[in-house]
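stage 2 :: seqdesign
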């Protein structure tokens, strides 16, 4: 394990920071804590150094082509590539119940479109038997969606990027034109985030089929975790939420590919449109949203 090179995107805080911590503790040779902001990144690295851990730092904004290309060149030159890539960085909409076009586009650009920049520059330097983990969410499970046309297109075995891009275009144009229908979704809070994470899961199902060199690509739900993203709500600590991603990165069999993994490391069928999840239960979600709104 000492010769492995691991990269975690958006790891200056939250779950990404926790994953870097655990990978360092587990003895992975080179672990890159990356952040879009150099100061936030350096101070996170300094904090870990005070705890006796030794991650490396590199600037990485996943939406900035030049930043991703620069980092890829650095990894190639210094290490000949990388073994573990954890696509963790993401954002969530600030307006919980109302979806505006500008905010929806931003959330989708950061959470979904950025994965194509990563794929273009980092996939070619993934080493033989590498592992890629696309962090999604329970809000990205297909059961969040209720539109039969999209359910059918996204759950088919031979799904292609075009299916997902068309889904995104449909969503963004219905937000823009005011034609979005509530009945197309199980619940509507955090809708743009839900759509972006559905797209991440769907893309994982395309990527794992196309990639070569026995690379394993999976997606996962880390649990409902107390971080800035959830305004410190949640039933799990950051440390607990890192178990599943670190399991997929280091311990899971290499044959596990294209799966949706739950925070308890079990596999869930992403294509099961009738799966009962708390995030799609109207009453639970409404209670949670009301709580958040009353706090803010
Ligand atoms: P946080 O908001 O705490 O952290 C998000 C991280 O992503 C930050 O480091 C942030 O950097 C970074 N980031 C945002 N935009 C970019 C960008 N363009 N380039 C590089 N980095 C960026 O979130 P969490 O730790 O809670 O979430 C981590 C992952 O887990 C996400 O994918 C999230 O969707 C997922 N998740 C989280 C859940 C939870 O309950 N917390 C539940 C389900 C899924 P900066 O500090 O500069 O903003």
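stage 2 :: out
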């Amino acid at each position: 394990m000492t010769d492995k090179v691991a990269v975690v995107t958006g790891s200056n805080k939250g779950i990404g920071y926790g994953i870097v911590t655990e990978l360092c503790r587990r003895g992975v040779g080179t672990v890159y804590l990356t952040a879009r902001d150099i100061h936030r990144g350096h101070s996170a690295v300094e904090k870990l150094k005070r705890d006796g851990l030794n991650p490396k730092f590199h600037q990485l904004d996943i939406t900035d082509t030049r930043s991703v290309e620069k980092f890829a060149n650095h990894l190639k030159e210094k290490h000949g590539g990388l073994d573990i890539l954890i696509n963790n960085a993401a954002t969530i909409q600030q307006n919980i119940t109302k979806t505006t076009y500008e905010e929806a586009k931003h959330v989708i650009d950061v959470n979904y479109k950025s994965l194509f920049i990563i794929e273009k520059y980092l996939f070619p330097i993934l080493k033989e038997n590498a592992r890629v983990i696309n962090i999604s969410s329970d809000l990205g499970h297909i059961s969040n969606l209720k539109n039969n046309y999209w359910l059918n297109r996204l759950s088919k075995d031979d799904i292609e990027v075009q299916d997902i891009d068309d889904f995104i275009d449909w969503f963004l144009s219905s937000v823009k034109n005011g034609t979005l229908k509530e009945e197309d979704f199980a619940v509507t809070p955090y809708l743009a985030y839900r759509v972006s994470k559905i797209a991440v899961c769907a893309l994982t199902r395309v990527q794992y089929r196309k990639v070569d060199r026995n690379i394993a690509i999976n997606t996962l739900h880390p649990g409902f975790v107390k971080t800035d993203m959830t305004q410190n709500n949640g039933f799990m600590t950051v440390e607990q939420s890192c178990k599943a991603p670190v399991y997929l990165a280091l311990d899971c069999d290499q044959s596990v590919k294209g799966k949706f993994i739950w925070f308890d490391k079990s596999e869930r069928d992403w294509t099961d449109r009738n799966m009962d999840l708390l995030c799609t239960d109207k009453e639970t979600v409404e209670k949670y949203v009301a709580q958040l709104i009353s706090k803010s």
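stage 3 :: structure notes
- DSSP finds ten helices and eight strands in the chain.
- The mean pLDDT is 96.
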